[in-house]
């Protein structure tokens, strides 16, 4: 078996190749010893080997830095994906496609997670040595937006539309598509409907709400709006379950159809309908904006508005962004969206 210091050396080389030091500073020998659970002398010997292999270099102040062998591929594609530290199923398709495309280009994809909108890890990712920074922030504070505007060439916002500020945005599909869900319920005979939202209010969610209200009014539908945005680390599906369940038990909603702003809210709403003795798709129809992957696996399957040929479109949109020095355009969204009807929506039952 190789000496322990050589095992540490190879482990650190893999970390470097995987982009671990594009954000973090190179630790000292003492910290490396603690990290690997070895003696200081073993860590020091590993560092010396890394210096000889030109992966580390010793600065004049005695600190360690990345060496020339580690930056020989400095021109390669280095991408960071900055995400909230809680699950967002609607981002899974983008993560998968981005990972595949970066690897195909012999690049590095680093994923980092933040706990709140002012987390230091966001600023560290923005100032790291990355070709592109893909960032998903539920709500973008004014100070952060100003910072992003100064980094337009490499920042890509997920699920936002801040193109008015010159920022590149991905999957910021037109909120006008929300009208298709209202039309769908209207076609099925629903005349009293509601919109349920558990997402923090940003320009995208607000746009969907406005379109729902406008289209409902145009069709002469009675409509209500129930809003309970999640806080940090709260799950949108759990919040929707509580919100929808309370609405049903208190008889706050006498309609027959519920539209949700996201698939997560639809999942929680469906369960609340079921647990309160009603049949989804029968007594109450439920449909959602986006999330076809989750919608198909749900029981009952959920009616959603979605893009066609999602995998191909994901790859094409990301290719356009990754393969240009600066993105060709600002808004990267689906070519076309349409209704995918699941079992969660159906015609109004006679009463």
From TrEMBL:
This protein's record includes keyword Endoplasmic reticulum: no
Location of the HTH gntR-type domain: 8-66
A GO molecular function held by the record: DNA binding
Taxonomy, superkingdom: Bacteria
Record-linked SUPFAM superfamilies: Periplasmic binding protein-like I, Winged helix' DNA-binding domain
Annotated keywords: DNA-binding, Transcription, Transcription regulation
A Pfam family per the record: Peripla_BP_3
Name of the featured protein: GntR family transcriptional regulator
Organismal lineage: Bacteria, Pseudomonadati, Lentisphaerota, Lentisphaeria, Victivallales
